[in-house]
Amino acid sequence: ATPTALLVGTGRGAQLGILIKGAEVLERTRRVDTIVLDKTGTVTEGRMTLAATVPAHGQDVEELRRLAAAVESASEHPIAAAIAAGNADLPPVTNFKNLEGLGVRGEVDGREILIGRPGLLRERGYDVPADVLEACDTEESRGRTAVVAGWDGAARGVFAVADRIRPTSADAIARLKRLGLHPVLLTGDNETVARAVATEAGIDEVVAGVLPAGKVDAVKELQARGRVVAMAGDGVNDAAALAQADLGLAMGTGTDAAIEAADLTLVRGDLTAAADAIRLSRRTLTIIR
Ligand code: ADP
Ligand code: MG
In which domain, by residue range, is 155 found? Predict the structure, then answer.
């Protein structure tokens, strides 16, 4: 392959809304046979809205809202934005900590508030009553992500947030499949929500409930099975997996960490451009030969 011919390919890429880090990236793009897709912010829009607030038995809903919104206003996660939205005059939060891929914690008046996946509260010794677990199941069966808020050693309520699949995702995935790629949905979210999104997007394989570190392992595992893996993601927690993949694709709408770790950026945050990139790489090399 002559460098000039490959540069023609990267120039065309820019026109299609694809930024390529170096012409040699196209070589790797051509060989990819599997595409791992992060769910939130990649296949979906990543703009969560609050669909329901369910207080635990005996819990005041206003207090639940206020304390959860206070802690989440310190987080940049799309779930946090949904929970914090529209709440003014919130109490100050101290010792805030982002528990990557699990949730958040912070203190209001010296009292710990913990918010995250139901398992997080249980692991930290919080009592999670049956009505709270039931509310989680109900919301998840509706395709929503349920997070639990708690303090003083017990879960106090559930927030259900909803996201939407990007309008272009199903078409993009259909095109990727026609190009011979096997799509895999990868997410820290729960299995029920992941399955619902996968079905809507036309993705057959789902790996759900993974921690941020688990995303790299999922890519490595596919590579160990002889797959040449592309990974598309947008989050800070996708960066390591994007770097591990044979081809890392970052959403231009995503975080700087993802864009830096990737080989290629889909400027408009549209997966259709991923299909264009694969097609382009194959065509470019055909012309060169
Ligand atoms: P994804 O892979 O879908 O981008 P993350 O790894 O960011 O998801 O988060 C995984 C799970 O951790 C979420 O589904 C949620 O249960 C929990 N979580 C993460 N951040 C927060 C937060 N700020 N507030 C509450 N829960 C959170
Ligand atoms: Mg994401």
Answer: 49-162
Label residue 3 exposed, middle or buried (CB < 10 Å: 0-12, 13-18, 19+): exposed
191 and 98 in one domain? no
pTM of the predicted protein model: 0.85
Which CATH number does the domain housing residue 18 bear?
Answer: 3.40.50.1000
Q: What is the pLDDT of residues 61-96, one digit of tens each?
A: 999 999 999 999 999 888 999 999 999 899 999 999
- Is 89 a catalytic site residue? no
- Sheet containing strand 264-266, edge to edge, reads 18-20, 264-266, 247-251, 229-233, 34-38, 182-186, 205-207
Q: Which residues contact 221 (CB under 8 A, 6 or more apart)?
A: none
State the ipTM, two decimals: 0.96
If one residue of 50, 102, 156, 184 were mutated to test the ligand 1 pocket, choosing by the most ligand atoms within 8 A of its CB, it would be 102
